[in-house]
Amino acid sequence: MGQYPCLEIHLGRLRENARRALAFFRAHGIEPVAVTKVFCAHEAVARMLFEEGYTMLGDSRLENLRALSGIPLPKMLIRLPMISEAGEVVRWADCSLVSGEETLRALSRAAQAQNRVHQVVLMLELGDLREGCMGEDELLRLGRLALDLPNLVLQGVGANLICYGGIMPSQENLGRLCAAHERMERELGVKIPWVSGGNSSDETLIAQGKMPRGVNQLRSGALIQLGIGLKDRPMPDYHQDGYILRAEIIERNQKPSMPWGETGTDAFGHVPHFEDRGLLERAIVAVGRQDADLDCLRPLDQGVHILGGSSDHLLLELTGDAVGYQVGDTVAFACEYASVLRCSTSNYVKKVVIED
Ligand SMILES: *Cc1c(COP(=O)(O)O)cnc(C)c1O
Hints:
This protein is α/β, with parallel strands linked by helices. It contains ten helices and 16 strands.
């Protein structure tokens, strides 16, 4: 079905990111779980992570974990399990993040039915208001339950920050996770191996030497795959162009900057607004919102500017040397997080692994 649009996966750049991140985290006593959701668990990237020495893969989707079953690493389900999928959780994941009693019970039942052991990491709410049980006492109660329930192993405690409430990781909030961990080990009289302290945004706290000492694991996707850290800041020494979307020009015209006729709403129900800048050199490329988040594409060519788009069309303005683009040429865009995610998920976008 043609070559384009295609997502170029620059494996060499990703490998350098992966190597750098692994060395950095380990130098600070933290073992990273390599998160695969942003690239939809593409086999070549996952295999590279294994070759580079990562010891665990994490994904939010069971379909992705199943697709990774050929890679000989333990798998972590990093979205809270659905009770309706408990059987598959236990089958495809070695461990999962859990924040409630009913889910623990369902996992225990499923693990017994399959004669497997399932590891759980109990999540504590630290203020970002996504997943996590409310308070140390509740965490302790869940810990006790996990120890009592057959076929479960209480493997760790964890937390997530930044993703919903925008709350930054800090000495204070991650300190609370470590304190809860210490209390739990003391009161339950068991060793609980992991303190899973969050995601790529922890990088800054670690680099500042402020990460509480108890944290010994984190789950990292964005730093490795996109070279970004806290607040999506591009990290020096990391590649931000590991994933490049290439799409083909299907129309090339000089057209006005202002539409004409009576204005209704655009394809997504918005009333569009335009500024009159006279005639523009315009191109249409064959890619759209089905394939990418158009706000998360950065044209590699300085003379290419994104005007907007719809489900299947991306509209460009061309300036400078880019005016030379013709119908049939391709235009390249570096992808930010949401675009890597969507390009990876879209069946319409071909994936091409490039060794550099
Ligand atoms: C997505 C996710 C991560 C990874 O986040 P990055 O910002 O990509 O490092 C970690 N933990 C959980 C629970 C997640 O959902």
